[in-house]
Amino acid sequence: MENTSYQVNREDYSKTPPILFVPINNLRITIASQSIYTGAFRVENKGGTPLKGKVFSKKGYAEFTPENFNSAEWKDNVQVIIYRIDSKNMFWGNTYEDTWIIESNGGEQEISNHIGIKKPMLIIDETNSVSSLEEFTEFAKNNWERANEIFCSPGFLSWLYQSQNLEYVKIYNQIIIISQKDWALEYFLRLTNNKQPPTIWIEDDIRKVELSPKDKRPNKKGIILHKKGWGLIDIELETNESWIKLSKSIFTAQDFKENKLIIEYEIIPNKIKNKINFGYIKIHHEDMESTYKVIVTQKQVFNISLSKKSYKQDDVGVLIIENETGKDAMVHIFPKDSWIGFEAKKYLISKKAEIPFRVRLTGWDKWGMNKEPYCETIIELMVSNKKYRIKDSLVLKVDRIGLGG
Questions:
Q1: Which pLDDT value is given to residue 67?
Q2: What pLDDT score does 310 carry?
Q3: Distance between CA atoms of 77 and 186, rounded to whole angstroms?
Q4: Do 200-298 and 302-399 show the same overall fold?
Q5: Which residue in 97, 101, 128, 90 sits closest to 113, CA to CA?
Q6: CA distances from residue 189 to 129, 139, 209, 232, 252 in whole angstroms, order as listed
């Protein structure tokens, strides 16, 4: 750049001659690469007649407004000079030296200028910017939607080029073409080692459920998932059984509240066929898979049992019947041998009945038994109400200890 010095003419000063005064003589400025920096300094006239002159950059790094000045136009003999530096042709990491010269009819002064170029800045908004991908990642953590807008803009790729990181540029060009732009940003941050994928785990991976015959409505249950980390996450569910009904099968990071997700599902009783049923819910997360097991046991309509495993030759016992139907039932009892005695042949029971009986073997009964360690007899039953009817039999054992014969 060719600079023409201000021409100082011989004048007849009737008053104090103009005197140039600039408060600063040295500036250190740090500018982001590919950006524009503006600042200002003052030029003062300490004399009594008008000060005239100009300002210019010796190496042409700066532009000034105004470039020419005349103190006759000033207020209070002070002029603010605004300077503008464009770093588009400067490389970050370098320092550039320049001299600004103020020439006037009141003298000359120089300002030494040291311009340091730092990494290019990525503009976030009117007041915020970042200088590194690490800073951008931290911004994305709490402002994902805005970060994704910036990521998909041409300015982001330009910033990568300006930062001279060709590996990042290569990764960006490979993934920006995918249709799901949110995931493009997620993968970019992962592939550049600026974040890890979120991880999930199940609080309890097995659920045991017991159903009674009166359970007709869907039984609501829930799976508790925990998440560690931030960013996008897609979860897909599948089940192998028709009696497991999922509330929905796809979940994202937005479904988590404070890193916790409750997945609701229902067990459909009228689709369960077996007494013990095994099912599962598969939880797919990217290339990971977890299994949540569901075991459903159906209670019998009527649960029938004896109070003891074996009895003595002269003993008392209790026949226990649990009614799970929710309705009263009639019980008919048919002992095989006469030495088993109940007070009645039939009973009306509600939810649970404990029916006493007596074991009393006579001498004739003892004589007819074989030599096994115990003898057996059978109690046959029929239990029914308007909806259910079952026939069952119980084996009653009597120890041979103390038996003759």
A1: 95
A2: 92
A3: 58
A4: yes
A5: 97
A6: 18, 12, 43, 11, 18
Dihedral, CA of residue 319, residue 323, residue 324 and residue 327, to nearest 10:
180
Q: Which fold has domain 20-118?
A: Immunoglobulin-like (2.60.40)
Q: Which CATH code fits 200-298?
A: 2.60.40.10
Residue 49 · residue 102 · CB < 8 Å: no
> Which amino acid makes up residue 12?
D
30/110 Cα distance (integer angstroms): 20
Residues 62, 132, 159: CA angle, nearest 5 degrees: 60
Which residues in the chain land under pLDDT 50?
1-2, 12, 403-405
Q: Which of 241, 224, 3 is nearest to 99 (CA)?
A: 3
Closest CA to 142 of 162, 161, 124: 124
User: What's the confidence (pLDDT) of residue 371?
Assistant: 60
Cα end-to-end span (Å), the chain: 134
Q: How far apart are CA 70 and CA 73, in angstroms?
A: 6
Using H for helix, E for strand and C for coil, what is the string for the chain?
Answer: CCCCCCCCCCCCCCCCCCCEECCCCEEEEEEECCCEEEEEEEEEECCCCCCEEEEEECCCCEEEECCEEEHHHCECCEEEEEEEEECCCCCCCCEEEEEEEEEECCEEEEEEEEEEEECCCEECCCCCEECCHHHHHHHHHHCHHHHHHHHCCHHHHHHHHHCCCHHHHHHHHHHCCCCCHHHHHHHHHHHCCCCCCCEEEECCCEEEEEECCCCCCCEEEEEEEEEECCCCCEEEEEECCCCEEECCCEEEHHHCECCEEEEEEEECHHHCCCCEEEEEEEEEECCEEEEEEEEEEECCCEEEEECCCCECCEEEEEEEEEECCCCCEEEEEEECCCCEEECCCEEEECCEEEEEEEEECCHHHHHCCCCCCEEEEEEEEEEECCCCEEEEEEEEEEECCCCCC
The span from the CA of 112 to the CA of 356, in Å, is 112
Q: Is the pTM of this model over 0.70?
A: no
**Residue ranges of the domains in the chain?**
20-118, 122-192, 200-298, 302-399
Sign of CA dihedral 304, 221, 243, 282: negative
- Is CATH 2.60.40.10 the right assignment for the domain spanning 302-399? yes
